Model the fold of this input.
Amino acid sequence: MNSAEKGSRLGAVVYALAAACFYAINIPLSKLLLDSVSPTVMAALLYLGAGLGVGVMYLFRFRDEPKSERLCKSDLPYTVGMVVLDIIAPILLMLGIKYGTSSNASLLGNFEIVATTLIALLVFKEKVSKRLFIAIGLITLASAVLTFEGSGSFEFSAGSLLVLGAASCWGLENNCTRGISDKSTYQIVTIKGLCSGTGSMITAIVIGERLPAMKYIAAAIALGFVAYGLSIFTYIRAQKALGAAKTSAYYAAAPFIGALLSLVILKEALSASYFAALIIMLIGTAFVVMDTLSHQS
Done:
C-alpha cells in the first residue's frame, strides 16, 4: 500500500470514528425527548433535521459538484431501499428506547455490525475473515444476554427486540447505501433525511400521533442534524475507502460511547446482565478492530 492509499484509509478511519461519536449522543438524548415527543414523530424529526441540515450544506456545494457524482436512474433501487429502511429503522429504535433502557439500547446497536457484515458477505460478496466471524458470534451472544428479561426468565424484552429490529434494518440499509456511496454524499444524506423523515411523519399522522411543542421540535431537529445528518455524512465518506463491513467495525465505538453517556446523563441503574454483555461485546469489538487494522498494514 503506497502513502496516498494509506492517507486515504487513515482519513476514512477518522470519518468512521467521527460518525460513531456523532451518533452516540442520539440514544440518551432521544430518551430524554421521548418524555415529550411520541416515538414516530421523534423518528421523523430526527431524519428531517438530518436532511435539512445537510441540505443547507449542499446548497453551497451544488454548483461545484460534478454531474457524474449525482444520483441517476440506475441508482434508484438502492435509493428507494435506503429510504424505506430509514423509515422503518428509527421508528423501531425510538419504540425500543421508550420501552427499554437507554444503556441496553446503546449496546444492542452493535448488532448492526452483525447484520451489515452478513449481508455484505451473502449479498454483496465482501470478504469476511475468521476474526469477523468470531466477532459476529460474540456480539450476537452479548445481544442475546441483553434481550432476555430478568434472571431465570425466558421472556424477551420488547424494548430490546425492537432495537435489534432497528439494527437489522440499518444493517441492510448500510449495504444499500454502500451501492451508491461513490455518488454525492451531500445528495444522499439530503434525500435520505427529507424522504425518510417525511415518510415517518406521514406514518405518525396516520396512526394519530401529535406534534409536540415547538421547543421540542427544534431540539429534535438539532439532534437529528448532528446524530443522524453529520453521522451519516461521515459514515458514507468512510465507506468509500473501507467498504460496509470495515466501516461498521470502527463505528462499533458508538454503542460504548452511548452507554457511557446514558450512565452520565440518565443515571440509569445497570444490571448484572448489562455488565456481562458489556464484557462479551468489548471482546467481540476488539476482534472487529483487530481485523480492520490487519488490513491496514
Observations:
- The mean pLDDT is 86.
